[in-house]
Design the sequence.
């Protein structure tokens, strides 16, 4: 079925904006002055995907609300039944009772605020002979959940809650954050570092408890362990050297999902992310293993994208910051994103956010598009002469510069098509200084005989193509008067006006023209014949027809 170019889908799950700038015949070109996020009307989000927040908001596609509880409200005594009728509080929020929260309609996700001294039951400190071992950045003091007595008591409450109440099997429960500790139930190392500094926790004790924690939670949830979401990160700022570098990946290997809380610093720390099956290759590109268990469609792969003018941050360029954060999340193959509609600028950039909603959780054989954001950006986390991390002896000559964000479309250097960094759109220290410098766009290098930019589609995506595709290229309409889009079909000439703006040109091609027949087994080339370089920021291949069955 051909997509409509003028009307959006009637199905509210489908695109909320029409597919635009659609040439009517192969080889035709349409150019506009804006980014184009529009999707074919057949696109639907996968079942295990979406936006989640404290409150649902169907106007912006947030369909999953939170059920938040404190350990104190659930467990008033160490041996008694679960309290489902009392209210609670944590992190400056008031919580209705479990019964009242579960009575609300709609799907939900859960957090149990457990480790804070005002979150834990009053009896825990006395019964387990423990005291606060540190305080977080909000001033809240925390108990050592790695203490065997504390952990055993917490697991008793978890069993009453998730097994006894049947919540682990409830289809409305989409996922739950674990292990229920630290600020906002996020697994950072502030408290752990303080306990180590005070001599109250050692590496052996901690690592032994960590393994026990993973085993206990996965065993408790049993066939529903894919609802567990570990909220820590690879290479944390922990006290145990390389021993804690890959513990997030260990949680994923145990069967949990994963969530990172600060993708707004989109260049920083999340390039080498083994828990997301994302690694930095020797050429600086990010390579994701789409066949890894974390990406099989059953797990939660999440980010939290709301701190653009909040959480102590203030974006200099909100649109740029939002787009980069979402592109980074999608490069990591996220299927869930935590949002807060206002701070996430969802109503400010609705077309972009609708595109993100439809991208979440897609896989190569099902995705409506493949794309590559061409750029060089610093990941200052790796800006060390000799990084004190478990790097595995790999090479990365351009460290700390990471090339591109790519999702099933990869820019490839080939003879005559070796890209160079563009300096036409430079962003410095967006949100924080550690976010580094980003040069948005790559360029041909005509002066050195490099007259093209070459791109290769993921083979699974390419094999599932049928009918026609749209190739959308965002390029700088300055200097170069014209360039050609090459595939196995006849070259298509794209002409500029010299506006000096970034523009998006859309070309319609037969899917059969993308057959890996160009240099380096690439599918597309953007080439120039004159003396001026072509600078390109974004390339997107959109399938007009639904994918074929694999």
Sequence:
């Amino acid at each position: 079925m051909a997509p409509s170019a003028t009307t959006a889908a009637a199905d509210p799950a489908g695109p909320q904006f029409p597919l635009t700038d659609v040439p009517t015949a192969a080889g035709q070109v349409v150019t506009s002055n804006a980014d184009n996020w529009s999707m074919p009307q057949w696109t639907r989000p996968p079942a295990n995907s979406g936006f989640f927040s404290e409150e649902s908001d169907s106007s912006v596609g947030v369909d999953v609300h939170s059920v938040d509880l404190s350990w104190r409200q659930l467990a008033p005594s160490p041996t008694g039944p679960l309290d489902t009728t009392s209210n609670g509080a944590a992190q400056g929020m008031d919580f209705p009772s479990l019964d009242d929260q579960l009575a609300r309609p709609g799907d939900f996700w859960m957090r149990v605020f457990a480790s804070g001294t005002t979150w834990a039951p009053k009896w825990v400190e006395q019964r387990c002979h423990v005291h606060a071992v540190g305080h977080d950045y909000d001033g809240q003091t925390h108990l050592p959940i790695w203490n065997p007595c504390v952990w055993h008591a917490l697991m008793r409450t978890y069993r009453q809650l998730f097994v006894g109440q049947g919540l682990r099997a409830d289809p409305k429960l989409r996922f739950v954050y674990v292990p229920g500790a630290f600020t906002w139930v996020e697994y950072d190392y502030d408290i752990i570092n303080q306990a180590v500094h005070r001599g109250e926790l050692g590496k052996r004790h901690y690592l032994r408890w960590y393994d026990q924690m993973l085993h206990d939670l996965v065993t408790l949830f049993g066939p529903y362990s894919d609802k567990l979401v570990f909220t820590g990160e690879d290479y944390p700022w922990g006290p145990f050297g390389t021993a804690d570098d890959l513990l997030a990946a260990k949680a994923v290997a145990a069967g949990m999902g994963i969530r990172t809380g600060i993708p707004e610093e989109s260049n920083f720390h999340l390039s080498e992310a083994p828990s997301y099956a994302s690694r930095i290759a020797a050429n600086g590109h990010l390579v994701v293993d789409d066949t890894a268990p974390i990406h099989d469609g059953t797990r939660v792969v999440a980010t939290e994208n709301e701190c653009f003018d909040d959480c102590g941050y203030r974006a200099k360029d909100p649109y740029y910051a939002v787009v980069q954060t979402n592109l980074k999340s999608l490069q990591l193959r996220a299927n869930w994103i935590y949002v807060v509609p206002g701070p996430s600028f969802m109503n400010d950039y609705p077309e972009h956010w609708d595109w993100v909603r439809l991208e979440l959780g897609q896989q190569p054989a099902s995705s409506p598009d493949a794309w590559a954001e061409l750029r060089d950006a610093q990941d200052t986390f790796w800006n060390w002469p000799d990084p004190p991390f478990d790097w595995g002896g790999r090479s990365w000559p351009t460290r700390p510069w990471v090339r591109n964000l790519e999702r099933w479309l990869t820019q490839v250097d080939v003879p005559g098509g070796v890209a160079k960094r563009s300096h036409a759109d430079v962003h410095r220290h967006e949100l924080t200084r550690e976010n580094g410098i980003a040069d948005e766009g790559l360029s041909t290098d005509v002066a050195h005989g490099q007259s093209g930019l070459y791109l290769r589609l993921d083979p699974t995506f390419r094999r599932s193509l049928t009918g026609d595709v749209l190739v959308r290229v965002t390029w700088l309409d300055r200097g170069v008067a014209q360039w050609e889009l090459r595939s196995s079909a006849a070259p298509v000439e794209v002409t500029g006006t010299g506006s000096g703006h970034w523009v998006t040109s859309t070309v319609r091609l037969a899917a059969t023209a993308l057959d890996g027949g160009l240099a380096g087994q690439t599918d597309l080339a953007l080439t120039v014949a004159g003396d001026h370089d072509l600078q390109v920021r974004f390339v997107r291949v959109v399938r007009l027809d639904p994918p074929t069955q694999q």
Observations:
- The longest strand covers residues 369-378.
